[in-house]
Amino acid sequence: YVGNSIVAWIWGGPSVNSATLTRFTTLHFLLPFILTATVVTHLIFLHERGSFNPLGLISNADKIPFHPYFSAKDAMGMALATILLMTLSFYFPNLLGDPENFTPADPMKTPDHIKPEWYFLFAYT
């Protein structure tokens, strides 16, 4: 089982230091690009092989080529989603943010989002 090794490698063991934060930031930076490449690869092969035969198996009777309408529809949906997200982020940048980000820092007080809840106390023992 490699799960514990992967978690220890990502988080750097029991302590959080510069190397851990660098690894974590790198993974979070690369993830959107990996997902985008996967989606583009999927769309290229799906549109190339046909909507009813994505694996490219020989079945000429049921094979219907992917209609350009679906490609245009995909492009319009992606453009609309991009426009909506850009509008949200440009005109209302703090709308989805946490209001606690704007409270002044007090090093002598634990922030509310870090304080443990009573129902998690069994896990801390």
Provide a descriptive summary of the structure in words.
Residues 56-125 form the Cytochrome b/b6 C-terminal region profile domain. One of its GO terms (molecular function) is quinol-cytochrome-c reductase activity. The chain crosses the membrane at residues 27-46, 75-92. The chain has four helices and no strands. It has 125 residues and is mainly alpha-helical. It has helices at 3-11, 18-49, 68-91, 121-124.
Give a quick set of tags describing it.
125 residues; single chain; mainly alpha; 4 helices
Could you outline the blueprint of secondary structure elements for this entry?
Blueprint: H1 3-11, H2 18-49, H3 68-91, H4 121-124
The helix-strand sequence is HHHH
* Contiguous uncertain segments of 5+ residues: none
Task: Specify the overall morphology.
Answer: extended
Q: Could you tell me the number of beta strands? A: 0
Helices, by number, come to: 4
> What is the straight-line distance between the termini?
26 Å
Helix-and-strand structural type: mainly alpha
Q: What does the radius of gyration come to?
A: 23 Å
What profile does the largest beta sheet have?
A: none
Number of domains: 1
The fraction of residues in strands falls at: under 5%
Mean pLDDT over all positions: 77
Level of helix content? 55-70%
Keywords: Electron transport, Heme, Iron, Membrane, Metal-binding, Mitochondrion, Mitochondrion inner membrane, Respiratory chain, Transmembrane, Transmembrane helix, Transport, Ubiquinone
Protein name: Cytochrome b
Domain Cytochrome b/b6 N-terminal region profile: 1-55
Domain Cytochrome b/b6 C-terminal region profile: 56-125
